[in-house]
Design goal:
By secondary structure, this protein is an alpha/beta fold. It folds into three domains: 242 residues, Beta-lactamase; 107 residues, D-Ala-D-Ala carboxypeptidase C, peptidase S13 (D-tyrosyl-trna(Tyr) Deacylase, Chain: A), CATH 3.50.80.20; 70 residues, no CATH class. A five-stranded antiparallel sheet has the order 2-1-23-22-21, sandwiched between helices. It has a five-stranded mixed sheet with strand order 18-9-7-4-19, with helices on one face. The longest helix is centred in the N-terminal third of the chain and has 17 residues. The two termini are 42 Å apart. The relative contact order is 0.18.
């Protein structure tokens, strides 16, 4: 038997098993879906599927629903729904600026303290507005130190390379109660042919920060990032290697993991403060808010309902982890670590009567190799969410099939487009999807599909076939 014949034989057997529900006693998957799984060489036991009317109890389709699977970013559904119920859609984070010491005119003869609460959206434009509030309070020059109180989150050892060995990727930024701009830097490369040099600009700009540029060379652009050896530390950044003139202007969004969070804050603060006409030449260090400090300005984040749109529509891992720890802070009223967040969510699920056997949650974002959840638990949670008062906020935060977010390019020319709200998930060997679909019949279904297999990256056609089947047959 040659290899082609053998493959066809094995595929036929696999298709037979899938079609006839020979896995865990579950109902058979429809032929179109089964065939796509066979084509992708994904074994049936690697797939969990649950389809059920949002107001019903009997599944329309179920396979491997009780087995814990890696959910990838669909775990964000658990975190954001829990947050909506426990914190309320209108919840806002507050970042305070406090002063100690005497103020004479516009000079503060003392320290300025910034206390964070874990705001997931303290991005560049919001930082600028916050510092402008401080300037508007009457402080121009700070003669003391800048003290950063990030004690809302417990000190925990995080390895930014621990997930995938890519610490420069922005999604690997670690949580921080005073996380500015997701601790990301957009590096702009500007080749100057006449000057025979590559100019580099940082956004946000960091005050008094030295940057060593790469050599400008002729030749093809190619994989230009891998031609640069990057080191971004507290005192300087180096981009050793070569940059081809043919690359033109390029942007690289990176996470400066070798730079401390304190220095990142200091560089950004000094630059913006100077741009606003302020003067500050003191030290920047971590500390806690003293009891005699007085409030001079306070930045309030957008409401939670807006924040979870960013988390779910665009699968923002950094914001999800900030939210996860905030849940722990509010539940336990002490500096939170990941265990506090996990316990908060598990207690909440138990209080709602949602079984979560085998569930593992370590950071709430799905950017994890240890997180697990069953399709049954995810489905029960989606059913509860649809009956919850916060359903409109959760539903509107999810990507719309064929229209926006991580579903923008999927199923555009099908009946599913505009009818489905789904959170997607993708990490190595994992593809997942969970959310709601309004079928052609007018009934709305919850849909969960999780695939854990080395060929998971080839499973999009099978997932799309599932959604088209639900739309047509639900």
């Amino acid at each position: 038997m040659n290899r082609l014949t053998l493959f066809r034989f094995i595929s036929a057997i696999a298709c037979f098993l899938v079609l006839h529900g020979a896995v865990a006693g579950d109902a058979a998957l429809p032929p179109d879906i089964a065939e796509e799984l066979v084509r992708a060489e994904i074994s049936p036991e690697s797939v969990a599927v649950l389809v059920q009317d949002v107001s019903g109890t009997t599944p329309l389709l179920a396979s491997n629903t009780e087995l814990p699977f890696q959910p990838a970013s669909t775990m964000k559904l658990v975190t954001t729904y829990a947050a909506l119920e426990l914190m309320g859609p209108a919840y806002k984070w507050k970042t305070g600026a406090y002063a100690v010491g005497q103020q004479a005119g516009d000079i503060l003869f003392g320290d300025l303290i910034i206390r964070g609460s874990g705001d997931p959206k303290l991005v560049l434009e919001n930082v600028w507005l916050f510092l402008r509030q401080i300037r508007a309070s009457g402080i121009r020059e700070i003669r003391g130190s800048l003290i950063l109180d990030r004690s809302a989150f417990a000190e925990t050892a995080y390895d930014p390379s621990g997930f995938d060995g890519e610490p420069l990727k922005p999604y690997n930024a670690v949580p921080d109660a005073l996380l500015l701009n997701h601790k990301a830097i957009r590096v702009r490369f500007l080749p100057d042919r006449d000057g025979k040099v590559v100019k580099i600009a940082f956004d946000p700009a960091l005050s008094d920060y030295a940057v060593a540029v790469p050599r400008l060379v002729e030749g093809e652009c190619g994989d230009w990032k891998n031609k640069l050896m990057v080191r971004v530390s507290d005192d300087s950044a180096r981009f050793d290697g070569e940059y081809a003139l043919a690359c033109g202007e390029q942007n690289w969004l990176l996470h400066p993991y070798q730079m401390s969070n304190t220095y990142y804050f200091a560089g950004m603060f000094r630059q913006i403060w100077r741009d606003l006409g302020g003067v500050f030449n003191g030290d920047v260090k971590n500390g806690k808010l003293p009891p005699d400090a007085r409030l001079v300005a306070e930045w309030t984040s957008p409401p939670l309902a807006d924040v979870i749109r960013d988390i779910n529509k665009y699968s923002n891992n950094v914001m999800a982890r900030q939210l996860f720890l905030t849940l722990g802070v509010l539940a336990f009223n002490q500096p939170a670590d990941p265990d506090h967040g996990a316990r908060t969510i598990k207690n909440w699920l138990a209080g709602k009567g949602i079984p979560a056997a085998g569930m593992v949650i370590d950071n709430g974002s799905g950017l994890s190799r240890t997180e697990r959840i069953s399709a049954a638990t995810m489905g029960s949670m989606l059913a509860a969410a649809f009956a919850s008062p916060v359903m409109p906020e959760l539903l509107s935060s999810l990507p719309i099939a064929g229209y926006d977010g991580t579903m923008q390019r999927r199923l555009k020319d099908t009946g599913v487009a505009g009818k489905g709200h789904f959170k997607t998930g993708a990490i190595k060997d994992v593809r997942a999807l969970a959310g709601y679909l309004l079928a052609a019949s007018g009934k709305r279904y919850l849909v969960v599909c999780m695939i854990n297999h080395p060929n998971a990256d080839r499973s999009r056609q099978a997932q799309d076939a599932l959604l088209k089947w639900v739309y047509a047959n639900g």
